[in-house]
Amino acid sequence: MFRPSLRPLVVAVVAAGGVAAAGVRLPAQAITTAEIDGDLRFLSSDLLEGRAPATRGGQLASAYIASALQVAGLAPGYKGSFLQPVSIDVVSADQSAIRVSVSGAATATLRDPEDVVVWSGAATESAAAHGELVFVGYGVSASEYRWDDFKGVDLAGKVLLILVNDPPATSAEPALFDGPAMTYYGRWTYKFEEAERRGAVGALIIHETERAGYPWHTVVGSWAKEQRMLPRDPALPAPLAMRGWITDSAATALLARAGLDLAALRTRAATRDFRPVATGITLDASIPSRVAHLASDNVVGMVPGRDPALRAQYVVFTAHWDHLGIGPPVNGDSIYNGAEDNASGVADALAMARAAAALPPARRPRRSLLFLFVTAEESGLLGSAYFAQHPPVPASALIADLNIDGGNLLGVVRDLTVLGEHKSTLGASLAAYVATRGLRLAPDAHPEKGYFYRSDHFSFARVGVPSVSIGPGTDFVGREPSWGIDQDDAYTAHRYHQPSDEYRPDFDLRGAAQLAEIVLGFGESLANAPTVPTWLPGAEFHRSGTTAAVQ
Ligand SMILES: [Zn+2]
What we know:
Radius of gyration: 24 Å
Bound molecules: zinc ion
Number of helices: 13
Helix content: 25-40%
Distance between the termini: 42 Å
Largest sheet: 17 strands, mixed
Shape: globular
Strand content: 15-25%
Structural class: alpha/beta
């Protein structure tokens, strides 16, 4: 296999003590900026039309990645194939025909999207929800915090009214629900899943700008449009007929007409004594929709481990290949190329796969390595969720997932950011590993935003696999300390999910090679280690039989 050797950054990776088996010296590996540049340039070119799932450009991307894995000498990773088919249901509500009204203790019509934004929780053309509104506080059941908002009350057939975010920490219990950081119990996804487990027919989350972290128009922009979902797993509870949000003012007015004070209810909901409150208000909603079905693929290749016993365990590396496709033009450009998000991560993971497959079998890590390129991340982590629910080996054999969503195109760094650093032993192991290379981990700048729950590694966490996303920090070699932060802000303001996230000749890919080598080297150290990563006490996801239900 020919690989141009332009500036190999690191020629030897030595396993860090305490992370890898003592004395294991990993063999020479070279990841080049040229190979990353080639993949990045192709995957983010206009030819691939933004790599939306189930489009020509998306199919070209997955086929290209599968071929690259085959050429590099990896084994097919899913039932003898490099492709794992993923079906996606697309539900488009007829916005003008949505009707939401209430009767009983209060009578009103709720306007969509001024008062509520609702959508069907299932891939059905005529969703209808009818049931009594019950206020369930934060809608949380969390034994590790000795918190249960439901108190065994039967909520079958009800429509739940739920507060956004975690129950607040108090001066007496500053670490309650991880203090200012958001736990999974604060995410809207959890609230809907818990409502399904309770047998509810619908759920409305009460929006508050500060507690949600985004204004009402973001709710409208995010949900008053088509919804993409995996075909329903029949083993899961029945889906909600209606999911939605209601404005704080609409909820306050509605409850007031039924003689209830939302501010007072909110105060009660901040205590462990809270019990669900029946409102006497009946909600009726009908949501006519169109349903379409798409077919896309995850791409997966495998490098077998050298240890006959341990090779049945796997370290997984993930990067999503999809992006937004063709969309509304901005400055005359309608192709959302997704160079940084996430052709950069794919190019890194492909370089890692080539380096791992190039090792002679006797010098490979003891456990096996899976290189997984998932589809439909931008549709709600769908490809990774499907893989985690339908892995080629039992999920218990997956010892860790290391995800890259956004590589480093700006040069060599002294620090890395890690989503999930404090959830599992992976954080401390990675800190020790990078310290041997003169790097450090930067603290999560926005723990209150819950980014841990918003990238593909989270799909693995949900089935109990310790997982992190790893990316560059902001401390760049040869730059002022503020430079990296300015670059971050410029990306968020001007390129994130815009057509301007495209290939630029001035990318400094030495940072990309650095990140790829670190993530691969760290993964190999896990694959050689005497013990496997575990969740820390208090993390929401464990290996036990009670992993959070996945949809
Ligand atoms: Zn991304």
